[in-house]
Design goal:
By secondary structure, the chain is α/β, with parallel strands linked by helices. Helices cover about 50% and strands about 15% of the residues.
Length: about 240
């Protein structure tokens, strides 16, 4: 089914869409149509979710599904959009074993209960920011969670890919952790040193945003993501 002109105009405002090969743009439009029909939207803090918001978010999320046999984020039921970054209260355990409540400002998060939460201001900011993309990050978590565990390893189709994934991702994750501990500047967001799930999400961001840099600095990670996503953004 041909896409409405208004959809195409919105897509063309997204840098990642403009970089896609022409054949991939056609496939992306079909994926967005399916996601738009399947997923529920909720505006938070008084926000009314517009067509522009839906298309901007879904077009970027759909890039993660191109060329892959997929069930279109099967665990995801709702996409919740705040107008801007939002505050949450989180319980954390201190080194002494006590539990403290901390206030944290967030741009997005993925819930195991079937929701992705996004800040619209941050989604817009990332359209012109070469280093971060909250949509790619949170929807990468959705891919990771499809096997029931948020552990940095999405469902991998072959034993060979699983073996390569465990070896290469573990080494790269530890390398990032050591660099962050030494307060060195890193290509990958230091947030990825928190745990393997965050490492996969920030690596996915760099794979699509700065593929040549990732290929040069973490070649094994780049090759794994290329084989998992069946895409090579370094050649776009």
């Amino acid at each position: 089914m041909p896409l409405p002109d208004v959809w195409l105009r919105e897509f063309c405002g997204i840098p990642l869409y403009r970089r896609l090969p022409v054949s991939d743009r056609a496939e992306l439009g079909g994926v967005v149509q399916i996601l738009a029909a399947e997923k529920r939207w909720e505006g938070a803090a008084g926000l009314s979710v517009s067509l522009e918001m839906k298309l901007t978010i879904l077009a970027q999320a759909a890039i993660l599904l191109l060329h892959r046999r997929t069930r279109y984020f099967p665990l995801l039921r709702s996409i919740i959009v705040y107008p801007a970054s939002y505050d949450v209260v989180e319980e954390v355990e201190t080194e002494d074993g006590f539990v403290e409540e901390i206030d944290e400002s967030r741009a997005g998060e993925a819930w195991s209960s079937g929701a992705v939460v996004l800040s619209w201001d941050d989604v817009l900011r990332d359209l012109t920011h070469p280093q971060e993309n909250v949509v790619l990050h949170e929807f990468a978590h959705q891919l990771d969670a499809e096997d029931g565990a948020l552990n940095g390893a999405p469902i991998l189709p072959t034993r060979a890919l699983r073996e390569r994934w465990t070896a290469a991702m573990t080494v790269a994750f530890e390398r990032l952790r050591h660099a962050v501990d030494r307060e060195q500047e890193t290509l990958l967001d230091p947030y990825g040193a928190d745990d393997p799930a965050e490492f996969f999400a920030v690596a996915t961001e760099m794979f699509f945003l700065r593929p040549l840099a990732l290929q040069a600095e973490e070649r094994d990670v780049f090759d794994l993501l290329r084989d998992f996503f069946h895409q090579d953004p370094a050649r776009w």
